[in-house]
Amino acid sequence: MKRNSGLTKRTIGSRLTAAFLAASAAPCLAAHARFNLQQPNSQLGQDIYDLHTLIMWVCVIIFVGVFGVMCYAIVKHRKSVGHQAAHFHENTTVEVVWTVIPFLILIGIAIPATKTLIHQRDTSGADITIKVTGYQWKWGYQYLTGEGEGISFFSMLATPREQISGSAPKGEHYLLEVDQPLVVPVGRKVRMVVTAADVLHAWWVPSLAAKQDAIPGFVRATWFKAEREGVYRGQCAELCGKEHGFMPIVVHVLSAEKYAQWVSEHKPKTDTAAVDVNKIWTLEELVARGEKVFAQNCVACHQANGMGIPGTFPALNGSAVVKGPKAKQLDTVLHGVVLDGKPTAMQSFAHLSDVELAAVVTYTRNAWNNKSGEAVTPADVKAARSKSGSAAAPAGSSTVASVLHAAR
Fold this sequence. Notes:
By secondary structure, the chain is of the alpha+beta class. It folds into three domains: 37-78 and 86-122, Orthogonal Bundle (Helix Hairpins), CATH 1.10.287; 128-271, Immunoglobulin-like, CATH 2.60.40.420; 276-388, Cytochrome Bc1 Complex, Chain D, domain 2, CATH 1.10.760.10. The protein has helices spanning 2-35, 43-76, 92-121, 161-165, 256-271, 283-297, 299-302, 320-323, 326-335, 354-366, 378-388, 400-407; strands at residues 128-135, 138-145, 152-155, 182-185, 190-196, 201-205, 210-214, 220-224, 230-235, 248-254, 338-339, 342-343. It has a five-stranded mixed β-sheet, covered by helices on one side. Strand 2 (138-145) and strand 3 form a beta hairpin. The longest helix has 34 residues, at 2-35. The protein is elongated. The model is unreliable at 1-33, 270-275 and 393-399 (pLDDT under 50).
């Protein structure tokens, strides 16, 4: 009976050990899936992933080796078993060994790291060049060269704010959905020239291995070449203000045929954008369009009810500027507000088109309790630009030549 009891205990112990190991392995696998780098979708991304893995294993081996030797020495050469402390002072052999080994390790890491870094910074030979401009708080895209040249648009969070802050069901990517994604063809090298219109931003799509700071007054370049079709998501990686967490980036990678179709569908929008300026707009049309522009650009600070955030962002409902002369309000939206020689949170919105500016100004002058009954036309905005010297530029004011030269 004792023998059988012993076998039973060993069997139970083995099963418990196996169960413990299985339970321990599951979180490790889940942690790997959750906390490792995203699956790369480009050769550059794969190079960075492999470099990360190589260096991680080098660190693991060093950790295990150093602490293994240290623990062995502590246990096997402790004073209680009669060992005396050894002295390596002025031992030339030891000095050479612990200098040469780290040197060889660093060289072994530096060679692949340098190759990857040089590859990452080589933006030459691009098939398509796209200018990215960071704004508070959206992205402006302008296709400068290659297929799609001339297309420009803004991209911002598409999820309604009431869904984010309310109790409505939220999708998996509710903070990473945009109204207009960046669209590129698969297998083509895409050069991104990155800048900012107001504060520091950073354009970052991890799975495409593309990350570049956007700095006002400077143009920096990065690139990517997607190897598989799909949807790839990123976000602003530089703390840029109140709405920093609501600046997602979505890149749609299409086949060459689908991309050509997308270009053909979006080209006319760019070519006919200037025609809207000469259209005769009614008050109702301007208010309806202005409400959409306000929701995309102004609602985060001034709120949907026009009451702003007390102490931070002023109310537009009943505002003396909004209810005053339209020239004063146009000057504010075109140039922003500067106090004591320092820019405030009210930045210039000169990057919006004449139609968009006319619509949003008309909307604010007729929304809530303002009800002025007065329309501001695109011609008014155009005249205000001419008077102040603020040129319209949908995705930034730099010319193609100056942007490409500055990015080199």
